[in-house]
Design brief:
Blueprint: H1 8-11, E1 19-26, E2 30-31, H2 42-56, E3 67-71, H3 80-90, E4 97-101, H4 107-120, E5 126-134, H5 135-138, H6 150-153, H7 158-161, H8 167-177, H9 182-202, E6 212-216, E7 233-237, H10 249-253, E8 274-284, H11 285-290, E9 299-306, H12 318-329, E10 338-341, H13 346-355, H14 371-374, H15 381-396, E11 400-405, E12 417-423, E13 444-447, E14 456-460
Parallel strand pairs: 3-4, 3-5, 10-11, 11-14
Antiparallel strand pairs: 1-8, 1-9, 2-8, 5-8, 6-7, 9-12, 11-13, 12-14, 13-14
Helix pairs in contact: 2-3, 8-13
């Protein structure tokens, strides 16, 4: 079993028992309540992504998939019943088991790590991991529990009470404690939108996105541009719609604080409430070879770590997770060519970048924008980031990349975790396309390989 691979040279080797990635895709990420997917169900979006994985791997018999793990935070009954129904509806037989995972915003990275670990432990050979979330349908309580043990509300243990602190207040705590200014946060948020806008215009997201067909009932036209449509319509949603193409730092500066009257976190420098789904296909390398799928391998999983931080500043998780991951795998920051860090809030993203000593590498962080521009559908963000990073590594020709994802739910007890991946996709020539720089953050970390270099490493933290 490939649990002890350490050092870049070792990680870039190929072994029969490697856990490899054959496909990682996502739906568009759209604005909750008024975006293109606001009338889509979470399991409907998941079905579209998984169907896309099967379509891109026509040699794979759905019956070969032993288990499907899906991260979700808000879905009714944990999403397990409707999710299983959707998988059977999509073409998987009853022998393919299904379950959901809730590690808050890191849920889909947890599902990925769990499936990868199960394959490494030889519990099964082929699995799918992903995430789904409709915050339009299920964000009524704002992800804060409303019915729990009364004694906890007055607990003398501060960390216990802080577990239900507003996520926005944790962002303000980070900004105040670690001196992250409003001006810097606004600049960071504007840059996220600029990079995502450039990436969308260049078509960088097209290959990772699976379009979703959505039926909008009377009076529910697609997006804010058509709020008064009086006839039912069916639309094909194929692009992220949360990106602000004409944003500026000056416009960001006019927005009022959301969480405290004198605060620094605004709707412009915080992640968006969003809808979407994402998924990845994993299997043992020897299994891919026996199924005739070796040519479809794009990467491999190497290792994972999980750490915790105080709930009242949950956004600082990457400052703990990434050093733990790099130490465990004997990889240095200098080995990493691209960093994909989920942007829960600009405050925690910037603090983590600075604390990790990455502020001199801003051109390598979130080259295509992050959660501030694209949105953050809680349970789906981890494997969304994975999809974006895997495709970006191919364009840049870098060997190693890192994904960092925070468990940034309003219940802030969930720790950051980390994993390592290895890229094996053929190099893609996109030299003629316009490119830009990017930045971003969250509390699960992952390092992924490059698509250009036939041999590249990936770390997930």
């Amino acid at each position: 079993m490939a649990f002890a691979q350490r050092g870049l040279k070792n990680i870039l080797q190929k072994y029969d028992n490697d856990v490899v990635i054959l496909s990682v895709l996502r739906t568009p990420i759209t604005r909750s309540y008024k975006g293109g997917l606001r009338n889509a169900y979470p399991e409907q979006m998941l079905a579209a992504v998984v169907r896309g994985i099967l379509d891109r791997n026509p040699k794979l018999d759905p019956a070969a998939v032993s288990d499907i793990a899906v991260g979700t935070v808000l879905s009714e009954l944990g999403g397990s019943k409707a999710g299983r129904m959707a998988m059977n509806h999509t073409g998987f037989p009853p022998t393919t088991s299904f379950y959901t995972v809730n590690r808050a915003c890191a849920s889909s990275l947890q599902s990925f790590t769990t499936v990868a670990s199960s394959i490494a432990l030889q519990q099964f050979d082929v699995g799918i991991a992903g995430g789904m979330e409709s915050m339009t349908l299920n964000y009524g309580s704002k992800a804060i529990p409303t019915n729990y043990w009364p004694e906890l509300k007055d607990s003398p243990v501060k960390n216990a009470k802080d577990c239900v602190m507003s996520m926005g207040l944790t962002s303000e705590n980070v900004a105040e404690r670690y001196n992250v200014s409003r001006e810097d946060q606004d600049a960071f948020g504007a840059e996220s939108h600029k990079r995502a806008s450039q990436a969308q215009r260049n078509g960088f997201f097209d290959d990772e996105i699976v379009p979703v067909k959505v039926s909008n009932p009377i009076g529910q036209g697609e997006g804010a541009e058509k709020p008064d449509v009086q006839t039912a319509e069916t639309v094909l949603v194929d692009k992220d719609d949360g990106i602000r193409h004409n944003v500026s730092v000056e416009k960001m500066g006019t927005l009022k604080p959301v969480f405290k009257p004198d605060g620094r976190s605004t709707a412009g420098n915080s992640s968006q409430v969003s809808d979407g789904a994402s998924a990845a296909l994993l299997m043992r390398r020897s299994t891919a070879t026996s199924l005739g799928l070796s040519d479809s391998i794009i990467g491999k999983w190497v290792s994972s770590v999980c750490v915790g931080v105080a709930p009242d500043e949950m956004g600082i998780g990457p400052t703990v997770a990434i050093p733990a991951l790099l130490s465990k795998t004997d990889i240095s920051k200098e080995d990493v060519g691209v960093w994909e860090i989920n942007e829960a809030f600009a405050s925690q993203a910037l603090y983590c970048i600075r604390k990790l000593g990455l502020d001199g590498k801003m051109d390598k962080i979130n080259p295509n924008g992050g959660g501030i521009a694209l949105g953050h559908p809680l349970g789906a963000t981890g494997t969304r980031q994975l999809a974006t990073l895997m495709h970006e590594m191919g364009r840049q020709g870098e060997q190693v990349g890192v994904v960092i994802l925070l468990s940034n739910r309003r219940v802030n007890t969930f720790p950051p975790s980390s994993s390592i991946l290895f890229n094996e996709r053929e190099e893609t020539n996109l030299k003629d396309l316009e490119t830009t720089d990017h930045a971003g953050f969250n509390c699960h970390g992952q390092a992924l390989p490059n698509f250009r270099n036939p041999s590249a490493g990936v770390i997930m933290g």
